[in-house]
Amino acid sequence: MERKYHMKIAFIGLGNMGGGMAANLVKAGHEVRAFDLSEDALAAAKEAGCGTFGTAKEACAEAEAVVSMLPNGAIVKQVYWDDVIGHAPEGAIMLDCSTIDVATAREVIEVTEAHNYQMVDAPVSGGIAAANGGTLTFMVGGTEEAFKRAEPILNAMGKAVIHAGDAGAGQTAKICNNMLLAITMIGTAEAMKMAEKLGLDPQKFYEISSQSSGYNWSLNAYTPLPGVGVESPADNGYAGGFATPLMVKDLRLAMEAAETADAAVPLGSRAASLYEDFLGAGNEALDFSAIIKTY
Ligand code: NAD
């Protein structure tokens, strides 16, 4: 039986996040043309119903849209320069969902648009479970027209799609949010441990502060102490959740951006160095809330 497809979408980078995202595009009825350097990732994509290709160039040929989910800005740039620009049909819409630095995101959009494509930066909030479940939040930077074209594609992979502003605004939103998250997690950890050392039951502190002016997401929705507050990675030995290396990656991007924008970030830079130390102490396998163990 012939299947009807909505769009031909090239998908580059089928790792922990991209694998599930590509599978959700297939489920939404799109023809997904997948490429990854890893054979295992390609085999999993094939299993999920994607067409698989030996090069990114071949995956991009005939594509009406290109989605990328890659480790960093240098790789994103290399893939777009070498394999996407000039190989995807003219007029295609491009969506980079990787978390990368704001300057590179702007540069890649500028260059692709100079080659008659349209492009958005569309980083995500939500981890592997949200990627698999199609419940990511996308924060999108680009023109109104590019956003309108990207939105239905993103809707197939997420629960919320927000137009943040011009090119790079998605990455800006992402790193500012995660810098705030790092600060609130450290603040929550300090307050909880200090309360405990002063003889206050941490659960009582949670009950009081989560309903007082100290309430915040790290305390209320992601309580970093086991057996206290809501269920969180702390109750599972700090496994799963948002891994410390990813928090450190986002904080490095935030510090870089703060410097280029001449923004004062005394707490952000302190949080960044505390997380660098925590990672350096061999905690790469732990959720970022495990930083409370250092207090
Ligand atoms: P990952 O390392 O699991 O996947 C990246 C994939 O890209 C790998 O399969 C790798 O083989 C592939 N790749 C690398 N270079 C390539 C190239 N030149 N051509 C084709 N494929 C190439 O990483 P991930 O966890 O899926 O993260 C992807 C992006 O999403 C990162 O930018 C990350 O910061 C961001 N992110 C991750 C999470 C998370 O929880 N994992 C959450 C939010 C955002």
Describe the structure.
- The protein is of the alpha/beta class and 295 residues long.
- Helix 4 (73-84) runs parallel beside helix 5, helix 8 crosses helix 12 and helix 11 (244-261) packs antiparallel against helix 12.
- Helix content is 48%, strand content 14%.
- It folds into two domains: 8-166, NAD(P)-binding Rossmann-like Domain (Rossmann fold, 3-Layer(aba) Sandwich); 172-294, N-(1-d-carboxylethyl)-l-norvaline Dehydrogenase, domain 2, CATH 1.10.1040.
- The model has no long low-confidence stretch (mean pLDDT 96).
- The protein is built from twelve helices and nine strands.
- A six-stranded parallel β-sheet has the order 3-2-1-4-5-6, sandwiched between helices.
- Residues 12-18, 35-38, 41, 56, 69-71, 75, 79, 98-99, 124, 127-128, 246, 249 line the site of nicotinamide-adenine-dinucleotide.
What's the topology here?
Blueprint: E1 8-12, H1 18-27, E2 31-35, H2 39-47, E3 51-52, H3 56-60, E4 65-68, H4 73-84, E5 93-96, H5 102-114, E6 118-121, E7 124-125, H6 128-133, E8 136-141, H7 144-155, E9 158-165, H8 169-197, H9 202-209, H10 217-220, H11 244-261, H12 266-280
Helix pairs in contact: 4-5, 8-11, 8-12, 11-12
This protein binds nicotinamide-adenine-dinucleotide (NAD).
Nicotinamide-adenine-dinucleotide binds at residues 12-18, 35-38, 41, 56, 69-71, 75, 79, 98-99, 124, 127-128, 246, 249.
